[in-house]
Specification:
Elements: H1 2-21, E1 25-30, H2 36-47, E2 52-58, E3 63-68, H3 75-84, H4 96-101
Helix pairs in contact: 2-3
Bound molecules: copper (II) ion.
Copper (II) ion binds at residues 33-35, 37-38, 105-106.
């Protein structure tokens, strides 16, 4: 009798924990960059956002995998933080000044925005993530 009770209690706890674990959301998207320094910069900027649990950028694929608490932050904030550090994402382009300050090895190829490029809105709309 007692063991049965403990068993069901354990199962209750386990199911509660798995619901809790699903709180974190994982997203992958492209971030422009070149080298290991970029990797540090990108991951640091990403992790500086409140609610981000982990960030892993791959310099070969240029894809970052971010896991975050959707209640504490959203993808938009994460993209903003990365672009502020000087790296283009598919949602936000880095400002020219920050990009220009990057070390030479980090100057990834970007489609040069002629003067005030307002034609780079291709990144928007492709995501169904807005609520
Ligand atoms: Cu770099």
């Amino acid at each position: 009798m007692k063991t049965k009770f403990l068993l069901s209690l354990g199962m209750l706890l386990a199911s509660g924990l798995s619901v809790f674990a699903q709180d974190a959301k994982t997203e992958k998207f492209e971030v422009k960059g070149n080298c290991g320094m970029c990797e540090n910069r990108i991951e640091k900027a990403t992790k500086s956002v409140d609610g981000v649990k982990s960030a892993d950028w791959d310099k070969e694929t240029k894809i970052i995998e971010v896991s975050f608490d959707p209640e504490a932050t959203d993808l938009h904030k994460i993209h903003m933080a990365i672009s502020k550090a000087g790296h283009d994402t598919d949602m936000h382009k880095a400002g020219k000044e920050v990009y220009d300050k990057l070390p030479g090895c980090c100057k990834y190829d970007r489609e040069e925005a002629h003067d005030h490029g307002d034609h780079d809105h291709g990144g928007h709309g492709g995501h169904g993530e807005h609520e």
